[in-house]
Amino acid sequence: AAERDKARQAILDIVGGGELLANTPWFQRSIEARNPSIDPLNLIQIEFMRRRAAAPQADDGQLDPAVGDLLRLCVQGIAAGMRTTG
How far apart are CA 80 and CA 67, in angstroms? Predict the structure, then answer.
């Protein structure tokens, strides 16, 4: 959250203050509408990334493909939910 707040403030400093997306209320509403669906996927993605990093590798050096598949599904879900917003 601290990094996000710093980045937000840096953007506001660059654009001269105010509120993010103040000139595009339709875009702001779109983001606010999608966040409740995307935020849980972000948390799930973080958990799968932790599991992937902590997972023991097989003898051939490969990670459990199920974890990779689930991580990929999370990324695809986030991308679909964000659409053109990022």
Answer: 20
Does any domain span residue 49? Answer: yes
Number of domains making up the chain = 1
Q: Which domain holds residue 61?
A: 24-85
44 lies in some domain: yes
Where b means 16+ CB within 10 Å and e means fewer, 28-56 reads: eebeeeeeeebeebeebbeebeeeeeeee
Q: Within a domain: residue 4? A: no
Q: For the whole prediction, is pTM greater than 0.90? A: no
Alpha-carbon gap, residue 35 to 80, rounded angstroms:
12
Instruction: Please indicate, yes or no, if residue 5 is contained in any of the structural domains.
Output: no
Per-residue pLDDT of the chain (86 residues; tens, 9 = 90+): 789 889 989 999 998 878 888 888 888 888 888 889 899 999 999 988 888 888 776 666 677 788 888 889 999 999 888 876 65
